[in-house]
TrEMBL record:
Family: Belongs to the carbohydrate esterase 1 (CE1) family.
Pfam family, one: Esterase_PHB
Physiological role: Esterase involved in the hydrolysis of xylan, a major structural heterogeneous polysaccharide found in plant biomass representing the second most abundant polysaccharide in the biosphere, after cellulose.
Sorted UniProt keywords: Carbohydrate metabolism, Glycoprotein, Hydrolase, Polysaccharide degradation, Secreted, Serine esterase, Signal
Class of the enzyme per the UniProt entry, highest EC level: hydrolase
Enzyme Commission (EC) number: 3.1.1.-
GO cellular component, one term: extracellular region
Protein name per its UniProtKB record: Carboxylic ester hydrolase
One of the GO biological process terms: xylan catabolic process
Location within or outside the cell: Secreted
Species this protein is from: Pseudogymnoascus verrucosus
One MF term in the entry's GO annotations: carboxylic ester hydrolase activity
Signal peptide: 1-23
InterPro entries hit by this protein: AB_hydrolase_fold, Esterase_phb, Plant_Biomass_Hydrol_Est
Amino acid sequence: MFSQVSLRVLAVAIALLSQECVAQFPFGGIPPPLRTVTNWGDNPSNLQMQVYKPRNVAKSPAVIFALHFCFGSGAIYNAFTKYSSLADKHGFIVVYPSSLDETGCWDVASKASLTRNGGGDSTGLANMVKFVISEYNADPAEIFVTGSSSGCMMTNVMISLYPDLFAAATCYSGVPAGCLAGSPSSSPISSDPACANGDIIKTGEQWAQIVYNMDPGYNGRRPKFATLHGTADNVVSIKDLGEQIKQWSTVFGINKTSEHPNTPQKGYTQLIYGDGTQFVAYSADGVGHTVPVNENLDLEWFGIINSAA
Ligand SMILES: *[C@@H]1O[C@H](CO)[C@@H](O)[C@H](O)[C@H]1NC(C)=O
């Protein structure tokens, strides 16, 4: 039935798949189970809240909000990332929320979700932040957000709407805050493709104005932000990294000061803005959708581990 060649192709495919699994579940097969939390607050868009709270949780723990990609869920993102296992080691809490919308995407398009306390997904997520602070005695100065693809788009939105709630953010393969505003949906299937195609081009000032308008009058410090994108991404264009860079370097009022090739790994270029403490971007050469999550980079950026660790 099978030729030698196709058997070999099959064997290689299985080997690659299992390598993929090893890469995704490096701490022994099955990710730690999440606990579903109910009654966490006003939930206007029917989100689900799942939490990983380690046994040895810190007295006043840091919290990482980890936002899934489209067609994903908190449970899938828990399997895709190592934050829960790392929480066992470092005593922080992980929140893996889920959009229960049919596409499993975060709403980064509707007026409700792009308005502070506007009654969309962003409002539900902000209410989860308030809940973890009151319910788990989380440190309000150590609330972090990250995500992949749709989760990265939502990260850009959350730090724009609620700069007061988050200390820092990282994210993988997304778009600037407001890029999908007015699109009929946030799903790759039914949204206006212009944003994902990298065809929404604005000046830094225009992008920054969108952020300012999302929390009018906000004058405090803003969450520090590191954003990563692959140059070979054919789902969300690498041009959207350039647009995010314009947006956030303008908001922070800083310019590019240096470029570091092969940082943190071969083929990635780290682009430092200002003194490198507020905004950093990474362009991953030849990497597609999405850039693999680098939890170590996230924890360093959040200050949960130090760079020497
Ligand atoms: C950034 O670069 C622009 C254009 O060269 C310049 O006008 C601006 O003053 C610079 N900003 C800072 C903070 O260096």
